[in-house]
User: Fold this.
Amino acid sequence: MSEIAGQTGLRNGATAVVNESYSFACMRCGHGWEQSYEIEHHTDADGHEFVMYVADGRIVPSPLSRPTCQNCDNHVVRIMRAGQVSSVRDAEHRQRPVPAQAGPVDVPEPAAREHHHWHLSDLLNVFHRKAS
Assistant:
């Protein structure tokens, strides 16, 4: 699920800092996004260890506890390894037709083909479980 990028310099009293990245897909609206985190390992005054997730320089809740869709605020979110969303977007980009360089062509109405616009939810339907 995560891609460990290695240790970074210790800061703010952290005993260790590890970078991890995740891909997320909302199972409600199909929105997909990726986020990288610095996971700071700390020890409190009583000697108990805890971690803090930092994204874009801000402390955020753990993305693993209750992820929230950035688009619709839903909490039914699939967490995947880093790069999943970008690879789907790259595949979609590669499948777009290149416009012809010739002039306009008259195509009879019944023979005209409608271009299908792919959504992330179309590509993630394999993750949905079918009800028994």
Observations:
- The radius of gyration is 21 Å.
